[in-house]
């Protein structure tokens, strides 16, 4: 689709991600490590993409991000609800994310290919067939699906959303045409909403009972990572 629209494409770094395989094997141990790594990477990628988009020397008409910092919280939220990330770890993630988001303009469009979790599960195992993803359970994808739809509801009225049913693969030219028609027509409220407002986030956090050992494990890891990830 990038070629059709003459947009530069930024893909998700699955090969260079040092935590992805470890996370799928031991999610409770590596979820926060992975989310902090992805948050930092997506922040840097978004800023780089924005600068390229604004450059007068760019030959591209726009930018496509495979996945951006704006939807990054979907995965952190899911791991928090699944008790893979403790309350303290999630609070630290949110603090970092909120600092980063202050520097970023909202995207012109969110393109969401809406696919049933069961179909996603089948495609992951039979079509994409990455070794590191061989253990992904259907329940994890169902949880992500819920968080993604919650994310889209919070974006409604702030960012233009193009949702396309994708249980059956569609036509790239048709999708590109819809994207072209939507981009630039956004006249919405300024600012980007928190995916979970503070009151809702605290209610969910204190309703989640983590083991004391898990809490201390994440606190120790957060202390070690603060200097590396505090970019502001």
The helix count comes to 10
Q: Which class of secondary structure composition applies to the elements? A: mainly alpha
* Mean pLDDT across every amino acid position: 81
Number of strands: 4
Instruction: Tally the structural domains.
Output: 1
H/E element order = HEHHEHHEHHEHHH
Distance between the termini: 34 Å
Percent range for β-strand residues: 5-15%
CATH topology: Rossmann fold
Radius of gyration computed on alpha carbons: 18 Å
- In the predicted model, the low-confidence regions spanning at least 5 consecutive residues are 185-216
Descriptive notes:
By secondary structure, the chain is mainly α. The chain has a single domain, classed as P-loop containing nucleotide triphosphate hydrolases (Rossmann fold), CATH 3.40.50. It has ten helices and four strands; from the N terminus they run H-E-H-H-E-H-H-E-H-H-E-H-H-H. The strands form two sheets. Strands 1-2 form a two-stranded parallel ribbon. Strands 3-4 form a two-stranded parallel ribbon. The longest helix is centred in the N-terminal third of the chain and has 28 residues. It is globular and about 45 Å long. The chain starts with a helix and ends with a helix. About 14% of the residues have low confidence.
Features:
single chain, two-stranded parallel ribbon, mainly alpha, 10 helices, 4 strands, 232 residues
Helix-strand blueprint:
Blueprint: H1 2-5, E1 7-10, H2 20-25, H3 27-54, E2 62-65, H4 72-81, H5 87-101, E3 109-114, H6 117-128, H7 138-155, E4 160-165, H8 172-182, H9 198-206, H10 212-229
Parallel strand pairs: 1-2, 3-4
